[in-house]
Amino acid sequence: MQNRFKSQADTGQSAADSGLPKRYALPVFTTNALSSVSYAPDQILLTLGLGGIFASGISLWVGLAVFAVMAIIIISYRQVVRAYPSGGGDYEVSRENLGLSAALVTVSALLVDYCLTIAVSTTVGAHYLSALVPAFSDHQIGVALSMVALLTVLNLLGVRESGRLFAIPAYLFMGAIGLLAVFGLVQEGMGTLGQAASASLKIMPLEPYQAGLTGLGGVLLFLRAFSGGCVALSGVEGISNAVPAFNRPRPKNARITLVLFGLISATMMLCVLHLAKVTGVKVPAFDSQILPPDNHLTTREIPPVISQLADTVFTSVPLIAFLVTATTALILAFAAHSAFNWFSQLTQVLSRDRFLPPQFFRRGDRRSISLSVFLPALLAAVLICVTNAHATKLIHMYIVGVFISLTVSQLGMLRYWKVKLRIRTFKESRKVLRRRWIVNAIGFNCTATVLAVVTLSRFTYGSWVALALMAVVFLLLWSIGSYYRHSGKQITVTDYEAGRAMPSRVQSLVLVSKLDKPTMRAIAYARAAHPSSLSLVHVDIDSAEFNSLKENWLASGLEIPLTVLASPFRDINGPLVQHIRSLRRRCPRDLVTVYIPFYLVKYPWQKYLHNRSAKHIRRQLRDIPGVLVVLVPWNLSDSLERAALRAGVEPLRPPEEYRHSSPVFRGRPQDLTKGAFMGDDGHLPWLDSVHGGWGIEQSRNDRKDRYHQNTQPDFSAEL
Fold first, then answer.
1. Which of 59, 355, 426, 621 has the most CB atoms within 10 Å of its CB?
2. Residues 332 and 124: beta-carbon distance below 8 Å
3. CB–CB of 332/128 below 8 Å?
4. pLDDT tens for residues 292-351?
């Protein structure tokens, strides 16, 4: 399988042609994962705060447990990079080793996860902006939605991932956290590190967790804190998805980048947790936990952990504290932008594999796919509004999808190494393969355990919403894929001889209400197609209109019969459909082509004033087998003749100049005064001798009919 899921860092050319060095690949493909450091410690402290144990050293143990899981997952994904150097990540691994259903489960989790990444990153970013500008604290929904709107516009304009561009906020964020950690640890060693502003808050533990870490409630509290900290594992799969974007040797550089990311991310989170413990940072989950005299505060007014630490460590230098908080908000915005790009690339792969419509594969002139931008933005905006821009509620949904894709990917790798073991006979190679299988087995057990913990501990708090969304996406993708497979079987050519067969004749009809310029153009188009027969069809609903049409038809000199359909109830569609069906019944192997003048309008309101009848007629005729509807456009705002003259092109000549040039009208001219009109009995006298009357020998048509009868298939069922 070729590169099914390939990320390109847009540096002027494809990443496959010019790979990124590790110093650029690290910030480009781990922005989402690095940004989780800004809210993973908050989730740990917030959960532990339910039991009133903010300042205990348990937060570090939770962080170490998360770090252990991260190490196992990174080692496992190094195996994915080794096995699939062409990229593809979780989707390719699950599809090739577990089948279509497992691949769609993985994809559904990833699509919902990317939408939730946008919602979580913008919501947390709004929280950090509120720390910079306290006036935003009461308008976090508006701030988050504004960030989503801005990112949507940027993606629609075609702002793509760039190595140098993404390196700036990523390295600024790493530098800010590193500066915060160094100064904080130095101040701690010197004994000058103060207490955070929230350390003086009086927080009341909730009812089920008043016993702290003792008993069953303590175990559940620890598991919830651990599952909250596991949000830091989001985005680990990004590097395995983008192996072709690295410099050569690509697999080696990707594995090194994975290790570097793990070390950097774990170090930053452990330093933040340690400083939060030392400074006494508190993050209440609910407003009801805050006791008097501080009960006038709300959780929205309490800054996030990194912002509190920056204000505490850099008390004497407020500018640096401001920059640390601003840098954190910036990395969150870039993480949301990265989620847009990953969503677009995944939908492009799904469209190529026929699980989404082709519109998701083709890029516009701005190199963006509009649907792949609007859909995640819309879902993220809805989730922000539904949750009232509450980051914790969004994270409850977010964390489930992360571990579903990780677990399915590890299971696929187990199957991959198992197949390799069956075909390898050399003892040494089998030992290597067995060690790799053991690595992925440990990773699978770890991710499956964490998935179970996350699902059970957070199911009632919002995880069920994410699971429901994944189920909906799964069913949608499965239905689209099944439809494309079924329709593909229907349109597949099995008999090329029958496929090359031609209709016996082509009967063309031009619908006319009056002989104006659009109608004359439709007649010219119909004559240019050289049909076997051609006639004008008019539905008589107004005697004055019919009389005017008859006079103009006689005066025009058109050598085309005019058929008038009686309509006692002033209905256009009924008599027309009946007439065409009678043609099909009389000549089932013929193709009937209906030409309808169609107006092109300039303003949206004009579409309600024109083409209403044409649309209704087209809708009635499209389901009749063997009938082809042709809409002949006429530009009302600027005639095509004038546009052609301005462009220096000779305009179309009027149809009268083509009177004797068309092969359909060979022979002696018709007596136009003998045009037949349909009576109440529905009989068309001119139809019996239409070919002979136009100068085409009847004997030739008879021979043609016999030939087609013997050699041509019946088109009545196919057309």
1. 59
2. yes
3. yes
4. 666 667 777 788 889 989 999 998 888 999 999 999 999 999 889 888 888 888 888 898
DSSP symbol at 527: H
The gap from C-alpha 559 to its chain's centroid, in whole angstroms, comes to 54
Residue 238, classed as helix, strand or coil, is helix
Say how far apart CA 311 and CA 318 lie, in whole Å: 7
Q: What architecture (CATH level 2) is domain 503-711? A: 3-Layer(aba) Sandwich (3.40)
- Residue 700 main-chain phi, psi, to 5 deg: -65, -40
pLDDT band at 76; cut points 50, 70, 90: confident
Tokens, residue 427: 């003892």
Long-range CB pairs of 170-173, under 8 A, 24+ apart, other chains included: 170/26, 170/27, 170/30, 170/31, 170/34, 170/331, 170/334, 171/27, 172/327, 172/330, 172/331, 173/34, 173/35, 173/327, 173/328, 173/330, 173/331
Q: pTM for the full model?
A: 0.75
User: Which residue bears the tokens 């500008």?
Assistant: 133
CA dist 276 and 570 (Å) reads: 82
205, 209, 214, 219 alpha-carbon torsion, rounded to 10°:
-130
> What's the burial of 683, exposed, middle or buried (CB within 10 Å: 0-12/13-18/19+)?
exposed
Pull the structure tokens for residue 157: 């304009």
Q: Name the residue type at position 374.
A: F
Question: What is the average per-residue pLDDT within 178-184?
Answer: 92
- Whether residue 665 is predicted with pLDDT greater than 50 in this model: the reply is no
Tokens of 430: 């089998």
Alpha-carbon torsion angle 404, 407, 413, 414, nearest 10: -140
> Distances in Å between the alpha carbon of 349 and those of 321, 403, 407, 593?
43, 21, 21, 39
Q: Comparing C-alpha atoms, which of 334, 318, 404, 308 is closest to residue 33?
A: 334
pLDDT in tens, 270-282: 899 889 888 888 8
Look at residues 306, 307, 289 and name the one whose alpha carbon lies nearest to residue 298: 289
User: CA-CA distances (angstroms) from residue 663 to 100, 286, 456, 528, 660?
Assistant: 56, 85, 78, 10, 8
Q: Would you say the C-alpha torsion 614, 615, 621, 627 has a positive or negative sign?
A: positive
In the CATH scheme, what architecture does the domain 22-486 have?
A: Up-down Bundle (1.20)
Give the orientation angle of helix 391-423 with respect to helix 370-386, to 10 degrees: 130
Domain ranges of the chain: 22-486, 503-711
